[in-house]
Amino acid sequence: MAQIRMPAHVLNLIGNTPLLRLQEIARDLNGVEIYAKAEWFNPGGSVKDRPAANIIREAERTGQLTRDKILLDATSGNTGIAYAMICAARGYRARLCMPATASEERQRILRAYGADMVLTNPREGSDGAIREARRLFSENPDLYFYADQYSNPANWQAHYRTTAPEIWEQTQGRITHFIAGLGTSGTFVGTARRLRELNPNIRLISFQPDAPLHGLEGLKHMATAIVPCIYDPELADEDRRVPSEAAYAMMRRLAREEGLLVGSSGAAAAHVALEVAREIRCGVVVTLFPDSGTRYLSEERLWNEV
Predict the structure, then answer these.
(1) Which of 3, 91, 195, 253 is the most exposed place for a label (fewest CB within 10 A)?
(2) How far apart are CA 63 and CA 260, in angstroms?
(3) Is 220 a catalytic site residue?
């Protein structure tokens, strides 16, 4: 007899994403396994569903977010989409400050969810969006719930409570290295803190773009950017740099060799994971693919061979 499943709310679909083993790009490795969490399986299409949901839940619990408030935040795209999706499902309005360079796909998704976009100076990147969100909030604090994902501890706590335990269970505790990029830094900080508690010997490796002017959406060059308040620079055992072109090359390689269409930050993660894997004799290296490459197909420079 067929089992009947009860209907699920969209928020209940967040998390428990698959852990994929990378086979082809790692085929010359002996004794080292590379895995990546496929975060585009979240209903909003990215890892940012996790912190966005936790931020909204906490704001509801504490009374900061009510029906007469507009959720306001700065985003490079994916957190904005997560906010917009959840706000649509729960009956809130969302106003999102975002660099005008955000891909056409992400802007269309936000419009589809009914979010109000404030496009900011593309030359200022995510920092320009942060400054604009702060300006709007300072001018009318009673109108907004300023989610402030760069300073809100509910961001990293989402990964502490969900991402890290999932990785631990999916690898049966075998993980030896964890790798994640730095944007808001919530993914790395929350996941790394919990993994360190589970096994202090796990090596924690963060990465960021190698230059202030880069093309890795969602990532920050910390030395020249507004550093998120939730970032803990003492947490990583090692912090690496990734050139944009190396990430673009990996995007194409993952698509053509693994059948995985991922965004530039996920490709950068794969680039670092492969570097690390080649430096060790044995281990289980785990990273995340924050989103799918389908959100970047209109950006031809990412897909064209050099």
Answers:
(1) 3
(2) 41
(3) no
